[in-house]
Every structure is written in structure tokens, then in C-alpha cells.
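JOB MANIFEST
job_type = single_chain_structure
chain_count = 1
residues = 140
[input]
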Amino acid sequence: MRVLGLDYGSVRIGVAVSDEGGSLAFPHGVVGAVPERKCVGEVARICCEKGVGTIVVGLPKHMCGDEGESAVAARRLGALVADATGIPVKFVDERLSTVAADKALSEANVRGSKKRGRIDAAAAAVILQTYLDSEQCAQF
């Protein structure tokens, strides 16, 4: 069963999807964060289309570990998506996921406007891969 990863942002939400075995995360794209109803509907459509069984939402925390307004908004998104899809939602600390995604895109020689267009989906893939790796470790 596939796992969907979301990187919350106030303008765009990055989306990533795992392979069927839940081992590898792949960037899928972005959905607009507003209007909220349309965003949740688009995420629900992707979940149905891809056969998603779990949704992972990146939880943006401050470096000290505290949760701010963005974390509250990410938790709200998770709750709305869970209600709309009936799929369980889990939250993953996403500190530095955008930095890791930016570095990976730079190493792949993705630059300029192409990079800006892919960073959110790449960050969602980093968040999702973090979750998938932790689940693999938990099985041992």
C-alpha cells in the first residue's frame, strides 16, 4: 500500500507518493493551499488515484522543538484530510526538510525557476522518506 507525504505551506503544499511497497518516496507535485476545500479535495483525489493507505504530514517545528503557527496549520490540514478521506494521518518532524530538498536539487543541477517549482514536492519526498525509513527501522 502506498503512503502519501505532504509538505505544508501557506501558498503551496508539496506532495510525494511512495512506491507500492512503502520503501521509496517520489515527488509527485504541488497543490494550492487555498482555497482550503479545493486543496483537501485535490489531496483526496490523489489518495484515491494512487491507492494510499497512510498520509504523512510534515510538522514544521522551530529548531528548539516548539510548534508555532505553521505547525497548527499543518495539524489542521491533517485533520481535514483525514476527515475527507478516512485515511489515517501521521505527523513527522520536518525540520530542515526544505534545506535537504534544496541541496538534493542543487546536486542534480536543477537551478532557477525549475528549482523553485520543484522544491515543495522534493521537500514532501524528504518528509515521506524520513517516515518510511523510521517505519523500516521499527520493524527490526
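[summary]
The chain has a mean pLDDT of 87.
The beta strands are 2-7, 12-18, 25-32, 52-59, 89-93.
exit_status = 0
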